[in-house]
Amino acid sequence: MSYASSLYFTGTEIGLSLAGLVLLLVVGWTGAKSARVVTILAVSALVGAIAFTASLPVGSPADGFNSAFGGLLRMDSFAVFAKILIYLATIGCLMVTPRFFEERDGYRGEYPVLMLFGAIGMGMMVSATNLMTLYIGLELSSLSSYVFASFLRSDWRSNEAGLKYFILGALASGIILYGMSLVYGFAGTTDYAGIRAAFSTHFPLGALFGVVFVLAGLAFKIAAVPFHMWTPDVYEGSPTPVTAFFASAPKVAAIGMLVRMALVPFGGEVEAWRQIVIFASIASIVVGALGAIGQQNLKRLLAYSSINNVGFLLVGLAAATPAGASAMLTYLVIYVAMTLGSFAALLMLRDTEGQPLETFADISGLSTTRPGLAWCLLFVMFSLAGIPPLFGFWAKFVVFQAAVQAGLVPLAAIGIAASVIGAFYYLRFIKVMFFDESNREPEKSSPMGHWVVLVVSVIVISPLGYFATPWLGSVASQAAAALFAVA
Amino acid sequence: MGFPILSVMLLVPLVAAIACLFLEARSARVVALLATLIDFVLGVVLWANFDIGGAQWQFVEHAPLFAGFNYALGIDGIALMLIMLSVFLMPICILASWNSITRRVGEYMAAFLLMEVLMLGVFMAQDLFLFYIFFEGGLIPMYLIIGVWGGDNRIYASYKFFLYTLLGSVLMLIAMLWMANAAGTSDIPTLMQYNFPVEAQRWLWLAFFASFAVKMPMWPVHTWLPDAHVQAPTAGSVILAGVLLKLAGYGFIRFSLPMFPEASAQFMWLIFALSMVAVVYTSLVALVQHDMKKLIAYSSVAHMAIVTAALFAFNVQGLEGGMIMMLSHGLVSGALFLCVGVIYDRLHTREIDRYGGLAINMPKYSLFFLLFTMASIGLPGTSGFVAEFVSLAGVYHASSFATLVLTTGIILGAAYMLYLYRRVAFGDQKNADAAAMPDLDLREWSMLAALAAATLWMGIYPESFIAPMRSDIQTLDARLAQAAPKGDAQLKVGPPNAHAANYIAHGSESTGEAH
User: Sign of torsion, CA B360 B365 B368 B373?
Assistant: First the structure.
């Protein structure tokens, strides 16, 4: 394991770090006026990161040549898949961000720079194969996130969101750290493969506690019930572009980290954690669906929607099979498209004075005033509800297929029945936009960047997406296989 | 592999639907009508080229486009007939909306054309999951049609329609996943020959039943139908009653019966019980309706109950009767909704009491309305007679008691339909505005005439419609034979009588000779 190879496989992180530091200097020297330029440069850095990541030789899953720094990080096909998705989501978020802040507090160059650092952290989360690297990545991305939540300095809701997010995030980190220390104590190593090997011979009760604590902390990060209560407040209070970010890239990273954690170091102890995951899954689906019903605020509603989606993702994890992990990755791709689409649309919903339209009452009759936007939202909402022929159905299809193949038919049946509750509030979007009369005049045009994100997302989730299923399926299974080859 | 006619039939309305979204009202109407007419012509070509008695699955197309499921299309005689029904009703629906829809015409036409794509897709699909996608996708356009262009209480109705049918369907998806996993394929023709363990069959049957019973709709999950019908625009009701309800009947005949024959036999009592309740209960409810559309909606539930009972009678007559009943009901109930639509467009009310004596000022209309009323009742010479007679003959083999109860539905059907007709068309012209309504114009006349011709054709020469389905129904019957329960009508052929029935003994002259 030469340094050259280690540096090569961590090239994405190194490159992004350098780009971030240089851009930070640029921002420091030029101040707020260069914010847009820095954003564009950050996006191009991420594009470069995607290109580099895609070109990495991932090799066959079994050989360990893609490890870096003595097994601290691992650039297998799972990491590549998750990273590319994270970077794409980050780019999407950056594209819809500037206008929002420029009209309020003044857009500042720190934002895209922090985004880059967050992206590095998230990349580390999904490729970490050691508890220590994992924790560093997690904290790097979390710290950027706390700043984002309160980025709108003059807005008390944003400050409140930042504070809440920080306190609860710190609590979650503490729980994870405590769990890790127990795991380390019983396994005697922080290396994933080492933990797995140690637990396969001896899995005492204390180690189980460690596993439960780690999973509980991770449940905080992915906003799974019963650790979801911060989500609606933070999502509602944060500036909308930040909410879009929270719902997409960090979610992918946290899910990726959870999958790798559950299937590699704890992969021998599936029975120990499966019931936790099943409970969190059903509870998230149900609470996410029921909680959304009474909401008037669209961002709050989308927060519940993301809780609901995490529930479906966990169905795939409960299967604990390669098919389940592959289904989760497929789900994540479609979920990111739906999330970015819905938030891009939300950012485009403004009245003629530029005030955001944030409640159901505000968007009534949108189909007559902004038909294009309304139709895009209709696609997104039916897709979120999982109604075929939209692509959101495919996401649910693969996770439930994995669950049924793993013999978890009751879980699949309950989960899918509960998804009908969720359909109710997605339908409300359609009802309000299409069936009601309009009472507010929305802004007639939207910037190009927003349209690009929205239209690309809508194309992904339209029935055209099915034509990508063979490719998506094979890439996702390859990525999932990488997790199981370690065993 | 010849000309992919099935794909083309799906593609034509799909392209037209996308075009309609961007067109203004007038051209959208024309495009929609043209697209549906092209599809109708393609349907006729399809029927003409269908090889009766040939291969079970014809016009098969197969393309490995997707992961996890296949783009596989193909039809048998049963699907062919239902496809014909759909493509026949669609242009009529477009015509029915010609003047009555003035708001957002392009979107309306797009929704209808999309509906057509999805309905045809359901009948053509040869892959389990492709079927599901088409089956569920139909909810979206129908939800929009009811919600955007419906009546006053349209929002409640659209929600109820959507959530009821969705809840019914999702469990079917899990069952399908299990089946595909167990059988190792999602190919429908293969699965139709696959023997699932009987224990599993019960669960699978129930999951499919949950979906189809709601869609059919069977008592007691029928309550969405009257709401949806009343609130939907006329053409929406026509397509709902005409084709959407048939998706469930098709589901029973394509999935429940051939894939789970043992479970079907075990749950026969359930189907019969629900059907019996539905016939009597909904007929009685129909008797007391003040709203014309609601009345016809309840009559649909009653007629569909006869379909379910007939399909689960486990004999050829029952299956043929159920299919003819579906086709006949598609035409007749569609026509009745159109009849309601015609006078609704003039007076903007569905209250029966607001009309009366229409035979005086609208004689042509009244004639058509009478014909469809009679067809709904099952008068010989109309399609309804063939349908009811064959269905009930089939059910009689299985259960004479069920037949007895179902037959009361015919009597009650005559009661509520004739009562409706009397109040609307006969009697005094008690409302001046109703008396001033003009008779049918050419557009309305041609729509109703087309339906009337089809109804009479099916009533006088049903062989045209039964012939394509015959071999498929026999195949299905053979498949069901392994599980068919013994009916209670054990007809024994005794020795022939010694004498003719009108023979009178003449003492010693009696020789018993046949004359």
Answer: negative
